[in-house]
Design a protein that fits this description.
By secondary structure, the chain is an alpha/beta fold. The chain is 31% helix and 19% strand. The strands form two sheets. Strands 1-2-3-4-5-6-7 form a seven-stranded mixed β-sheet. The longest helix has 23 residues. The chain starts with 10 loop residues before the first helix and ends with a helix.
Length: 339
């Protein structure tokens, strides 16, 4: 579970290194980022308590429910990006109710992982749709919105009941709407973590929810069976970099695009560039080893993640360093026809 210490904004650290060391006052500002003073935590003493982080005055991140859940609040109600795991749905609902008395209106799924969309059914049932005739005629709960690929996978498997399926889907490159005084754009990022990944941008607030494309605790999960690819992942990261604005020219200000990853701390463009560079370097290293005719075992022995393994790697859990290397290797071999 992501703990409070994982959620410190790290972008300022990178930016501060570029400043003149003798500017001690500015160094102090970067040690305690300006925007961090606006963060609010709501967490109990239990090991499965959630933490609520204020990213912008009406945008909050709920941490500890599996994947990060983002909530936009306003006069129209609560707009959720992802719903966390099924086991944590009641706690997420309580955290949302602590933020606003208004009902949940939308749940936007960026992917269909169990710890991202597992709370769909419970949170949708607790909400109220804005338009009962828009897509799912007669629906009363909060609308669940996602790419069509997510609905097709959810409805074709056994992990999710029908009440958790998206009630509204889109197939275009992006879906846009205007709620709570902010333009919301859901943008498809094809063949990254999966073939159905989306990011969500709150334009006025200047906050982007990156979903599982960015996981600052580990190497990105490339799910080949669900249409993911290392090149799609890099393309998505480059697109995110294009969409984010750094704190320039006043690097000591808090003004910048804030990025909420699928897991890990709130970030900015500096963190994103570092993560993209890491993924690209590993991809290029493995590609070079493939070019030398190495087998997957030889590639693993060559340690292509050297330099990054301590920070992002793991030898246990559902997504190990070996699995990441295997996914990159298999994907690159397949893109060249395999051998």
């Amino acid at each position: 579970m992501v703990g409070p210490s994982d959620f410190r904004v790290m972008g300022a650290r990178t930016l501060a290194s570029a400043l003149i060391p003798t500017l001690a006052v500015l160094g102090m500002l970067f040690a305690a980022p300006v925007w961090e003073s606006g963060l609010t935590a709501q967490a109990g003493a239990s090991g499965d308590a959630l933490e609520t982080i204020e990213v912008r005055p009406n945008i909050f991140a709920i941490v500890g429910a599996g994947g990060n859940v983002v909530v936009q609040v306003g006069p129209e109600g609560a707009i959720l990006v992802n719903s966390g795991s099924a086991a944590m749905a009641d706690k997420v609902l309580a955290a949302v109710k602590a933020l606003t008395p208004k009902p949940i209106r939308y749940i936007i799924n960026t992917a269909d992982d169990a710890d991202v969309a597992g709370g769909n059914a419970a949170l949708s049932a607790a909400g109220v749709t804005l338009n009962r005739a828009a897509f799912n005629v007669g629906a009363t709960g909060a609308t669940i919105l996602a790419r069509e690929e997510i609905l097709l996978r959810m409805s074709g498997g056994t992990a999710f009941g029908a009440e958790a399926w998206p009630t509204e889907t889109f197939t275009a490159r992006q879906r846009s709407m205007y709620l709570n005084g902010d333009g919301i754009q859901i943008m498809h990022m094809p063949a990254a973590h999966t073939d159905g990944d989306s990011i969500v941008m709150f334009r006025r607030a200047d906050v982007i929810v990156a979903g599982d494309i960015v996981d600052l605790r580990r190497f990105p999960v490339i799910d080949l069976e669900r249409g993911g690819s290392i090149q799609g992942e890099i393309n998505a990261l480059n697109r995110l970099i294009d969409l984010t604005i750094p704190p320039m020219p006043f690097v000591w200000h808090e003004d910048r695009t804030m990025l909420v990853p699928g897991r890990g701390h709130v970030a900015d463009q500096a963190d994103l560039v570092e993560y993209r560079d890491m993924v690209t370097i590993v991809r290029d290293t493995i590609q070079d080893l493939i070019g030398k005719g190495m087998t997957i075992e030889q590639v693993k022995a060559a340690n292509p993640t050297a330099g990054y393994r301590t920070r992002y790697g793991s030898d246990a859990g559902t997504w190990t360093t070996d699995k990441f290397v295997e996914a990159v290797y298999t994907g690159l071999k397949g893109s060249k026809g395999g051998s």
